[in-house]
Known about the structure:
This protein is α/β, with parallel strands linked by helices. The protein has two domains: 4-223, Spore Coat Polysaccharide Biosynthesis Protein SpsA, Chain A (Alpha-Beta Complex), CATH 3.90.550; 242-403, CATH 3.30.1330.50. Helix content is 30%, strand content 28%. The chain has helices spanning 40-49, 66-74, 91-103, 122-133, 178-190, 199-205, 225-238, 281-292, 299-302, 316-328, 351-362, 380-383, and strands at 9-15, 34-35, 38-39, 54-61, 82-86, 109-114, 138-144, 149-152, 158-162, 168-170, 174-177, 210-214, 242-256, 259-262, 265-268, 271-273, 331-341, 369-374, 387-398. The strands form five sheets. Strands 1, 4, 5, 6, 7, 10, 11 and 12 form an eight-stranded mixed sheet that branches. Strands 16-13-19-17-18 form a five-stranded mixed sheet. Helix 2 links the parallel strand 4 and strand 5 (82-86). Helix 3 (91-103) packs across helix 5 (178-190), helix 5 (178-190) crosses helix 6 (199-205) and helix 8 (281-292) runs parallel beside helix 10 (316-328). It is elongated. The model is unreliable at 1-5 (pLDDT under 50). The site of ligand LQXTBERG has 8 residues, from loops. 4-CDP-2-C-methyl-D-erythritol 2-phosphate binds at residues 250-252, 276-277, 298-300, 374-377, 381, 384. It catalyses: 2-C-methyl-D-erythritol 4-phosphate + CTP + H(+) = 4-CDP-2-C-methyl-D-erythritol + diphosphate; 4-CDP-2-C-methyl-D-erythritol 2-phosphate = 2-C-methyl-D-erythritol 2,4-cyclic diphosphate + CMP. Keywords: Isoprene biosynthesis, Lyase, Metal-binding, Multifunctional enzyme, Nucleotidyltransferase, Transferase. The record marks 21, 30, 276, 375 as: Transition state stabilizer.
Amino acid sequence: MQPEEQFSCGVVIVAAGRGERAGQSAEGPKQYRTIGDRPVIAHTLDIFATWPGAGPIVVVIHPDDEALFAAARMCMSGRADLSVVHGGATRQLSVLAGLEALSGTGAPYVMIHDAVRPFIDHALLGRCREALGSGAEAVLPAIAVADTLKRTTEGRLVEETVPRAGLYAAQTPQCFRLEAILAAHRRASASGRSDFTDDASIAEWAGLPVLLVEGAADNVKLTLKRDISMADERLSRHAVPDVRTGNGYDVHQLVEGDGVTLCGVFIPHERKLSGHSDADVALHALTDALLATCGAGDIGDHFPPSDPQWKGAPSRIFLEHAAKIVREHGGTITNADISLIAEAPKVGPHRQQMRENLAAMLDIDLDRCSIKATTNENLGFVGRKEGIAAIATATVVYHRGKKN
Ligand SMILES: Nc1ccn([C@@H]2O[C@H](COP(=O)(O)OP(=O)(O)OP(=O)(O)O)[C@@H](O)[C@H]2O)c(=O)n1
Ligand SMILES: C[C@](O)(CO)[C@H](O)COP(=O)(O)O
């Protein structure tokens, strides 16, 4: 076999189907549905993009899916220099469009793969490439049929048991000498055929010998709705969740006044908190904690105290803005915890209302919002009732590649 750098395989990934058997989804056709943490096609492309034997990669998409594909591409972790072309009404026509695009690149071989087989692995790619390297013009990964096979009538009556010896289920990538399969595809298309369900059958039709290599049991095609949920479960089981915590601290001075606002609750008191806004020290600390989970700076970066528009502003504006930034980064807020450090006023009687305010501002469940309070045992500036401090912790789960 030739050394790796002299023998790379061009790749055609077909992704122009409508996924009708998998049913409708707001995410689009099945190749754009999320499994684990990103679209099916991003998983598939990454396997090829990170395989050292891969040459130029052509992705065949449906003209209506430009935006879906652009978003999916952002979720790839491997290299992203792909060519994109539009497919046709059948898989066969989509493959032909991909082969035509690849033919200009000078790649000697091609691997043709379904975008909806995201569990392809490097070992199988290696087996296919080795078969090509040993001189095969057409290589088909396949799995021996394990079930007993029946042929039925239209009325579902069993007509016969089909002997399964020698029967295999075809997978992809199906691999070819590019010139040979392109010529076969062109011929098939020119003679009015557009109904071949795989490329090996076009090779057979054109008289090319097809060599079978062992496929991979995991290399399933996501065809039905349940295939997608099973794939999602499988990936989610192994995924390390991207859970991030951020902390925030704030302190405001107590001055002459008639009450303080904490977590949006006005509590009558003989003093007030001084500040440019409503000085809600609790919400300020939590705003910083949220921003910290996605590296978005601090409250002062977003709402400079020098800006007159924030004079006397209710601090819920700041918190809701931080929550919006978190969501735009693909985050789900799972917990918000604030500790208030104050000698007075008493927080206990207002705790429930504060939690309800937090739940509403963050649009999360009440049991994900916690308020705690402590005195400072008469020590330091808090003990001398010169100010109130707050410490906050935010917990956010981020979904890789998902930006809302
Ligand atoms: N006109 C088509 C039809 C299919 N495919 C691609 O071929 C692969 C295998 O096809 P299949 O599982 O049959 O997908 P769909 O045609 O989308 O499914 P359905 O028949 O349920 O609509 C998929 O990656 C699909 O996107 C394609 O590129 N162009
Ligand atoms: C190419 C293929 O994946 C081999 O199993 C399969 O034939 C394509 O699926 P389709 O449902 O026939 O389009």
